[in-house]
Amino acid sequence: MLKTGLELKQQQRLSPLQIQTIKLIQMPIQELEQKVRAELESNPVLDDEPDPDSPSESKDVSIDAIKEDGDIPAYRLKVNNWGKDPRPEYNTFSVKEGFTQSLQRQLGFRNLTPRQQEIGSFIIGSLDDDGYLRRDIDTLVDDLAFRANIEATPEEVEQMLRVVQEFEPVGVGARNLQECLLLQLRSLRPTEEVQTAIRIIDECFQDFSNKHFQKICTRLGITEDQLKAAFAKIVKLNPSPGGQIDDSYDDQSQQIVPDFILDEHDGVLDFTMPRFNVPEIRVNKKYADLLIDAKGSSEKSQKEAAAFVKQKLDSAKWFVEALKQRQNTLSKTMRAILEYQHDYFIDGDESNLKPMVLKDIAEKTGFDISTISRVVNSKFIETHFGIFPLKYFFSEGMENSEGEEVSTRELKKVLQECVDSEDKKKPLTDEQLVVEMSRRGYNVARRTIAKYRSQLGIPLARWRKEI
After folding, report:
1. Which of 258, 264, 442 is nearest to 341 (CA)?
2. Over the stretch 377-395, which tens digit does the pLDDT of each residue have?
3. How many helices (H) and strands (E) does the chain have?
4. Residue 234 and residue 382: Cα distance in Å, rounded?
5. What is this structure's pTM?
6. What is the 3-state secondary structure (H, E, C) of 88-151?
C-alpha cells in the first residue's frame, strides 16, 4: 500500500560568513595572505592604498558601523586585530614535503601527454602510505574507467607505473618487497656486490627470506665472502620507500612560515602569531560616495549602482569578520594545546607528550571536532626545540604498568631503543619485543608492536639479522 504525506526535516544551512570562516581557518598563513590579495583584486569596493583626500585625523571604524540604510561615517575599514607592521619579516623553515605531493611534483617534470599525466596521477593516488602499489593492473584499469572516466589499456597503465617507479624515493610503486628491493638495487652503480645482490633477490628471494645462505651460495656458485658483501648492500635498502611521513621533517623540503611562535619563560608558556601582511582594508572613496549619493534617488541607474556597492560592502563585511573569527579560533585552539601539553612544551621531552586526540581540544575550546581538525591541518608552531606541525602533538595512547597514560610516540621511542640495543646476530622477534617492552613497563600487544615497527621503518627480525 502506498502512503502519501508531508515530511518535515530540520536542516542546518551555513551562512556566507560561516562558509567564509571555515575556508579561512584551514588556510596556512601564506595561503591566507594570497587570499586577502585576491579578495582586494576581486572586490572593487575594497582598497589598500592610502586615501589622498582623507584627512590624517580620520579615525578607523569598525566595518559593523556600516548600516543598511545609513551613511558611511568614514572610508577606512581596518582589520584591527593584526599586527601594525605593514611589511613584516618572516622566519621561514624547511619541512618535509608530503609523500604524494612529492611524487605529483616529479610527475609534473616529465614530458608527458595530458592523458599520461592523468593516469600517472591516478597511480600515485592509489599507492599505500609505505609507497607500495597493492592493486593489480586490471583493477586500476577498471577504477580509471569508473572513477576518472579514462578508458586506458593495461599496457598504458603498466607503462606509466614504470615511469612512477623511476621517481624518488627509489622503490616507490613496487608491487611487492622483491620488486621494491630490485628497483633500488638496479638504481645503484653496477659493482660486483650490487650485481650479486640483484641475482640473490631476483633468483633466490625465497631462500634469502628464509636465511638459507648455503643454498644461495650453492645455487649461484658464489663464495661466503661474496654473499656477505652482497648481503651488506641489501640490508641497507629501504623496505618501506614511502617512509613514515608524519614523523620526520628532514627530507625534501618546502618553505613554510610558522603560524605560532612559542614563548617560554620560567615555566610560563605563551605564544604569538607572526605579524601577517594583511593590507589595511578600507572602502574606496568613489564607491562610498556613490552609495551615499544614490540614497533616496529615484533614478534606476543610481539604484542599481547602489545595490551593486551594497552587495560588495556585504561581501567585505563577511570577509573581514571571517578574518577576525579565524584569528580567535586559531588563538583559542593553540592556547588549549599549550595547556594540555604544558610539560612537553617546557623542554620538548617526548616522554612528557600526553596522549591527545581532537576531541580533547574540542572539549576544552567548545569548538566542533571538525573545526579543530581544520585548525591543526597545515599549521606550524616554532618552539625553542624545533618547528612542528600542530598535528604532531596529537596521538593515541595507552597505560603503562603503573597506570599512567603514555603517548604512542613514547612507546615508539622505547621500541626503537629495544631494537637498537639488541644482538644483531639474534635480533628480537615481535613476540620477544613484547616481552622486552613489558620488562620496561609497557604492556603492548604483538600486533601493536608490528604496527609501530612498520611505522618506524624497522624490518622484521630476519631482515635485521647480520651474518
Report:
1. 264
2. 778 898 888 888 888 888 7
3. 20, 10
4. 39
5. 0.51
6. CCCCCEEEECCHHHHHHHHHHHCCCCHHHHHHHHHHHHCCCCCCCCCCCHHHHHHHHHHHCCCC
